[in-house]
Amino acid sequence: MNERDFKERTQKLALRVIRLFETLPKTSAAQIIGGQLLRSATSIGANYRAACRGKSKADVIAKLALVEEEADESLYWLDLLAESGIITQEKLSSLAKETEEILAMTVASIKTLRRPART
Q1: What is the pLDDT of residues 45-66, one digit of tens each?
Q2: In whole angstroms, what is the distance from residue 37 CA to residue 31 CA?
Q3: Which of 2, 49, 69, 109 is the most buried (most CB within 10 A)?
């Protein structure tokens, strides 16, 4: 997957989470958990864009590590929404799967970047 495609994919994820947040019940728990999900999921794409503008290999790795953290955190909030009964797991499964895929690709990219260069 190229940079443009990954940017688009992370933006679509953010838009899906925005729409999900708008449908959440107006209870305190739903709004707090949803707000945390909204923050972390929208940060995935923002941090990926920053990584694309990294000034060095170390800078890119550090910024991709933020993408990894935000994706993992987003999965936590999705799990919490489901396990608390605020939203059914079935309604969240596609969103969780997409987040897991983005997380896996990010981890793979970090591992690739950390490999020593062949001479």
Answers
A1: 999 999 999 999 999 999 999 9
A2: 10
A3: 109
Cβ(78)–Cβ(98) under 8 Å?
no
Distance separating alpha carbons of residues 100 and 89, to the nearest angstrom:
15
Does residue 84 come out as left (phi exceeding 0), alpha (psi in the -120 to 50 range) or beta? alpha
Contact 25, 86 (CB under 8 A): yes
**How does DSSP classify residue 88?**
-
Residue 37 and residue 74 in contact, taking contact as beta carbons nearer than 8 Å: yes
pTM for the model stands at 0.94
Q: Rounded distance, CA 45 to CA 30, Å? A: 23
Q: Which class is domain 3-114? A: mainly alpha
User: CA-CA distance, 14 to 87, in Å (whole number)?
Assistant: 18
